[in-house]
């Protein structure tokens, strides 16, 4: 019976002979029967498997999905039922936030023979306290602080940056873990559990029980070298990959055009790099709002670039400012390591010798008392600090230096330092450990930064509503803009003309944290990228290597709009602009606000994208510890459903009866057909009749 309709659990249909017959007669009805029995879960997000040079992390189910009896965990003591005393293992454990802790998850991992999987119910508001599934020392093996650089600074010996980090994101679970939105799905689950599974007064619950099945089978195993080898084998036979390198595209632009065709060292060029990261992550793939960890930084940098547009065009400082937005930094600095690699290999319009200094904007959304901390490297500090402090004083921001012996926090700048000692500063809102209590988690969202709007506002009004957070970030952006200008050698008299626009900051925050599909971005995004606009908050999880994901495309176009200028030429001429040779043009169309017909226009800007793929995949060398080796496994199906199961004995009994009935009917058929001559002789003409 199961083989006839593999998606339908046998016991419901084979429970009686008549059901069996009915089922065969109505052979077409597999699906409609399936729908009556199963309730599919709609808003699920899985944890997926990632691999590096030596390990696999994440979660997976068996090929046919893991099935377990539902158990809603009420407290840590309640784990005993799952791991030891419950009579119907394996269990599918339903958890809520306070119980999604390292201690409980590790106990479940240890008892995985009795655990079929875990479903985490996402609360509708952020948990009190903190929650970070990331490690307490992010990117500890890929930054500059190795044993060789300075043994006293390696492995966060000096400062533990993310003390709340539980490291759950880096564990390997051999059962699936899904997150469920707290809505009708979870209501159905709770009801099913209460009605069928909850032990009442210590008695064991009786069949049928409510069960859940989760599918998230992962194709790749062991580590990156293994799965890349399998990719190569598969490639020669049939193109079926098992894993893909993590990566995306970086975005960069400059305060004055750089010849993009001429790669490598440029004589007479000296650049100040202004950097921010573009990505974040969380335990579950595809829910990474990264509000404080990434958005606060790159929105500030975009606003600073905008503030610098006039000043850098009217009174050009003699150094160029290079705006760089790095992707994949959560996974051992994929984007920045690629930029440094390209500079070393003369694949970038500049090389390392062209870099004057680096100013990186880290997490700046949670300042207390207007304080910003200027982090430097104890081994390579120089004059940038003075410039920053000078402009900070004018703005009533206090820019303070932490303890001089403290190393840099995890930052892209470390990848530059790894190459050579360049002066640089990393701006943060924390002195030592992170202020961010939700680092690299799904709760690092706009609620955490108090970006809320009065409820009566329409979406259009929300887009323009300047929140306190937007004001605070505007202030930081003004400071960053002025410091960059000064650092680039600009005149002090221009500084007062450099002011970030709080309207633009608030529009950007709305676009990244509420919805990118709004009237402002619709005008800025070129017609061929309009598909990147969405009605939900942006997901900053880097994903697998692709030309340009949603965040990359948006930042690329925004940078063009905020630093470029509109050319009054026809579309044809715009397309004919010599983009590569002169490196000035970047074309972006746009639509007028409320017309259905999109009218393109031509924008001259220096905003560009370039590959953010780890050099390890360029060189096919996964033993080189210098580069990120993270890959993501492929999968075929990710889904979940709940249904009722009968006891194993009943299943076996039904199957037995079914087989018995089948054999009896086969025997009967055989008997009847072999004796047909006798049985049906009267109804037949004699075969030897002649006429
Ligand atoms: C791979 O990831 C694991 C788990 O986080 C870590 O222990 C290990 O050091 C990493 N290996 C490399 C080569 O980075
Ligand atoms: C893991 O489970 C075994 C029994 O299955 C137990 O003896 C051991 O203490 C557990 N380890 C941890 C770390 O809980
Ligand atoms: C959830 O259930 C309620 C009542 O049962 C219903 O009104 C509502 O539309 C459902 N929501 C969704 C998203 O299905
Ligand atoms: C999921 O969506 C389908 C179709 O929209 C609906 O029939 C089903 O009830 C939903 N599942 C739950 C658990 O709400
Ligand atoms: C850019 O560099 C290329 C190659 O070196 C050169 O041919 C071209 O003339 C340069 N363009 C400008 C505008 O300098
Ligand atoms: C740049 O200059 C133009 C006019 O020259 C002015 O309208 C605009 O507000 C200035 N922008 C900024 C950001 O100062
Ligand atoms: C920039 O100008 C300053 C003086 O205005 C000069 O000292 C410095 O050498 C110049 N730098 C470059 C790269 O030309
Ligand atoms: C958000 O609001 C709460 C309560 O008003 C306040 O305690 C907290 O400091 C605010 N956070 C930010 C980032 O403004
Ligand atoms: C930027 O977008 C605005 C619309 O919001 C438009 O008016 C302006 O011309 C654009 N500027 C550039 C340089 O693309
Ligand atoms: C754009 O150029 C056309 C002719 O080339 C001219 O008629 C028109 O006035 C220009 N528009 C603007 C805004 O400069
Ligand atoms: C666009 O809509 C606004 C208000 O929604 C209106 O004032 C304006 O006239 C409209 N513009 C066009 C070109 O239709
Ligand atoms: C990979 O990189 C390591 C470290 O740089 C080097 O020793 C090794 O020879 C490289 N292997 C290959 C196959 O290039």
Notes on the protein architecture:
By secondary structure, this protein is α/β, with parallel strands linked by helices. It folds into three domains: 33-242 and 638-648, no CATH class; 248-561 and 606-613, Zn peptidases (Aminopeptidase), CATH 3.40.630; 565-604, no CATH class. The protein has 21 helices and 22 strands. The strands form four sheets. An eight-stranded mixed beta sheet has the order 1-22-9-5-6-7-8-2, with helices on both faces. α4 links the parallel β5 and β6 (91-96). α8 (291-314) runs antiparallel to α14. The longest helix has 27 residues, at 648-674. It is elongated and about 110 Å long. The model is unreliable at 1-35 and 580-585 (pLDDT under 50). Residues 107, 110 line the site of one 2-acetamido-2-deoxy-beta-D-glucopyranose. Residues 46-220 form the Nicastrin small lobe domain. Keywords: Glycoprotein, Membrane, Notch signaling pathway, Signal, Transmembrane, Transmembrane helix. The chain crosses the membrane at residues 652-672. It is found in: Membrane. One of its GO terms (biological process) is Notch receptor processing.
């Amino acid at each position: 019976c199961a083989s006839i309709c593999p998606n339908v659990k046998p016991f419901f249909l084979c429970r009686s002979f008549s059901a069996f017959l009915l089922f065969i007669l109505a052979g077409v009805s597999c699906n409609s029967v399936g729908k009556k029995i199963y309730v599919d879960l709609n808003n699920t997000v899985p944890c997926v498997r990632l691999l590096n040079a030596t390990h696999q992390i994440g979660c997976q189910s068996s090929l046919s999905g893991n099935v377990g009896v539902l158990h809603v965990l009420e407290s840590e003591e309640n784990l005993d039922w799952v791991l030891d005393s419950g009579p119907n293992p394996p269990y599918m454990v339903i958890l809520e936030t306070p119980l999604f802790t390292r201690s409980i998850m590790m106990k479940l991992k240890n008892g995985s023979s009795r655990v079929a999987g875990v479903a985490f119910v996402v609360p509708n508001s952020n948990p009190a306290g903190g929650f970070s599934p990331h490690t307490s020392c992010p990117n500890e093996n890929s930054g500059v602080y190795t044993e060789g650089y300075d043994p006293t600074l390696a492995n966060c010996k000096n400062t533990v940056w993310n003390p709340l980090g539980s490291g759950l994101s880096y564990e390997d679970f051999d059962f699936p873990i899904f997150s469920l939105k707290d809505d009708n799905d979870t209501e159905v689950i709770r009801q099913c559990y209460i009605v069928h599974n909850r032990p009442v007064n210590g008695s064991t619950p009786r069949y049928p029980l409510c069960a859940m099945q989760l599918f998230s089978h992962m194709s790749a195993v062991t580590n990156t070298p293994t799965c890349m080898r399998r990719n190569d084998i598969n490639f020669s036979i049939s193109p079926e990959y098992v894993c893909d390198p993590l990566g995306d595209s970086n975005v960069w632009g400059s305060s004055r055009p750089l010849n993009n065709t001429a790669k490598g060292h440029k004589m007479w060029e000296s650049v100040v790099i202004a950097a921010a990261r573009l990505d974040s992550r969380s335990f579950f793939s595809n829910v990474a709002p990264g509000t404080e960890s990434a958005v606060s930084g790159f929105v500030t940098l975009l606003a600073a670039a905008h503030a610098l547009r006039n000043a850098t065009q009217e009174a050009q400082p003699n150094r160029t400012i290079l705006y760089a937005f790095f992707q994949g930094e959560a996974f051992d600095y994929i984007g920045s390591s690629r930029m440094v690699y390209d500079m070393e290999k003369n694949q970038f319009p500049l090389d390392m010798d062209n870099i004057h200094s680096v100013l990186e904007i880290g997490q700046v959304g949670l300042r207390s008392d207007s304080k910003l901390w200027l982090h430097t490297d104890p081994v390579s500090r120089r004059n940038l600090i003075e410039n920053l402090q000078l402009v900070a004083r004018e703005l009533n921001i206090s820019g303070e230096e932490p303890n001089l012996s403290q190393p840099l926090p995890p930052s892209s700048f470390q990848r530059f330092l790894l190459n050579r000692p360049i002066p640089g500063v990393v701006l943060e809102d924390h002195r030592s450990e992170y202020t961010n209590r939700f680092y690299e988690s799904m709760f690092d969202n706009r609620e955490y930064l108090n970006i809320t709007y009065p409820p009566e506002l329409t979406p259009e009004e929300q887009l323009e509503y300047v929140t306190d957070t937007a004001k605070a970030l505007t202030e930081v952006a003004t400071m960053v803009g002025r410091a960059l200008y000064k650092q680039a050698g600009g005149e002090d008299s221009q500084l007062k003309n450099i002011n970030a626009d709080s309207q633009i900051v608030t529009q950007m925050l709305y676009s990244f944290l509420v919805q990118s599909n709004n009237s402002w971005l619709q005008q800025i995004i070129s017609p061929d990228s309009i598909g990147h606009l969405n009605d939900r908050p942006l997901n900053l999880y880097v994903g697998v290597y692709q030309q340009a994901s949603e965040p990359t495309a948006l930042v690329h176009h925004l940078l063009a709009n905020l630093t470029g200028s509109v050319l009054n030429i026809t579309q044809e001429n715009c397309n004919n602009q010599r983009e590569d040779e002169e490196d000035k043009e970047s074309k972006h169309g746009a639509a007028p606000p409320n017309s259905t017909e999109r009218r393109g226009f031509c924008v001259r800007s220096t905003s560009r994208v370039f590959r953010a793929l780890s050099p390890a995949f360029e060189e096919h060398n996964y033993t080189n510890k210098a580069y990120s080796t993270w890959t993501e496994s492929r999968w075929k199906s990710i889904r979940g459903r709940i249904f009722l199961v009968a006891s194993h004995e009943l299943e076996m009994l039904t199957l037995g009866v079914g087989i018995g009935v089948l054999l009896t009917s086969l025997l009967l058929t055989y008997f009847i057909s072999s004796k047909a001559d006798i049985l049906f002789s009267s109804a037949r003409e004699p075969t030897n009749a002649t006429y």
